[in-house]
Design a protein that fits this description.
Largest sheet: 8 strands, parallel, barrel
Distance between the termini: 33 Å
CATH topology: TIM Barrel
Shape: globular
CATH architecture: Alpha-Beta Barrel
Order of helices and strands: HHHEEEEEEHEHEHEHEEHEHEHH
Number of helices: 11
Strand content: 15-25%
Number of strands: 13
Strand order of the largest sheet: 3-4-7-8-9-10-12-13
Helix content: 25-40%
Length: 360
């Protein structure tokens, strides 16, 4: 209710400035045990019908915050109190980078969408590793999304990803290889089969080496893909995922398409939110069919309500993530989605969320 009143004022301000304000406020809340306790009582949702174990990790509910919201791992201790069952930080690069020139975030309220061309602005792997090392005990799994530094050519991309992966390895519960942002020139070319094979094999080898040195299991390794892949290219990605035994796929990143928008806007960048919903859900369904449900999928794109999450779960997603839906919906969004999923389970006569994955 309070956020509904505040949103019109916030939406008259620059989106990136509002985001920075929100990060500072949430960071302060995370430092206060009293505030954290209040938030947890109001928003956190844990229900045995929603909890799952994937990759040896326990997810108390299936609703996560997507990479991009907490780029520098400042909020891993407070976002769970807002109801998120897992947190993904990043995208993190091997070195700090400022990203693209401002302005670089744009709201499209008529479309319930955002356009961003941020360009992997982040403090770099060393700074993020240090912050994660100091974050203490975790309520939920924390994933780390890694990308290629802008100045690094694609020919050297594998070595760059390996540097970032090694620095952050001790602190991520799972890792996501981002080869699908439209805002780093040439990055999406790494989704081509040969490039992806090289990158995934190198990361898997490094993963095994680091796990052996620590006497631990290798970290789950996922790849995040674009919604704009042509069918043949998607087939290639899935074939690599199956052949290399990837732990999961995240579908999808933002889109460069502007089809069907009510807003007339010429800004470049990745479009997220409601206009992406149907395309990302269709891609989840395609991946689930191609993999025969053997590779877990995290569904992202246009999730604002429990019904939207349910659609992606029926299509084949075991988990869902949101970013734009959180921006438009406010602090209660994750809890409302989780509560709605419990209601949908009851309405359809299912005992557990895992029972409906890929059944629609």
């Amino acid at each position: 209710m309070l956020y509904d009143l505040a949103r019109p004022v916030l939406f008259r301000m620059d989106p990136e400035r509002v985001h920075e304000m929100a990060v500072r406020r949430l960071e302060a809340w995370g430092r206060s045990e009293r505030v954290a306790k209040t938030l947890r009582a109001r928003y956190f949702m844990e229900d045995p019908r929603l909890s799952q174990e994937l990759w040896g990790l326990r997810f108390p509910n299936p609703v996560g915050i997507a990479a991009g919201f907490d780029k520098n791992a400042k909020l891993v201790n407070v976002l769970p109190h807002l109801g998120f069952g897992f947190v993904e930080v990043g995208t993190v690069t091997s070195e700090a980078q400022a990203g693209n020139p401002k302005p670089r975030m744009f709201r499209l309220p008529k479309d319930k969408a955002l356009i961003n061309r941020l360009g992997f602005n982040n403090e770099g792997a060393d700074a993020v590793a240090g912050r994660l090392a100091r974050s203490g005990a975790r309520m939920v799994p924390v994933g780390v999304n890694i990308g290629k530094a802008r100045r690094v050519p694609n020919a050297e991309a594998t070595a760059d990803y390996l540097r970032t992966f090694e620095k952050l390895y001790p602190y991520g519960d799972y890792f996501v290889v981002n080869v699908s942002s439209p805002n780093t020139p040439g990055l999406r070319d790494l989704q081509a089969r040969e490039s992806m094979e090289e990158l995934v094999r190198a990361l898997k080898s490094k993963n095994a080496d680091l796990a052996r040195a620590q006497g631990a299991r290798p970290r789950p390794l996922l790849v995040k893909i674009a919604p704009d892949l042509q069918p043949k290219d998607l087939e290639g990605v899935v074939e690599v995922a199956r052949a290399e035994k990837l732990d999961g796929l995240i579908a999808t990143n933002t889109t460069v398409s502007r089809a069907g928008l009510k807003t007339s806007i010429q800004q470049e960048g990745g479009l997220s939110g409601a206009p992406l919903r149907d395309r990302s859900t269709a891609m989840i369904r395609e991946i689930h069919a191609m993999t025969e449900g053997r590779i877990p999928i995290v569904g992202v794109g246009g999730v604002f309500t429990a019904e939207h999450a349910w659609e992606k779960i029926l299509a084949g997603a075991s988990l869902v993530q949101l970013y734009t839906g959180f921006i438009y919906g406010g602090p209660a969004t994750a809890r409302e989605i989780n509560e709605g999923l419990v209601e949908l389970l009851a309405q359809t006569g299912h005992e557990h969320l895992a029972d409906v994955v890929g059944t629609g």
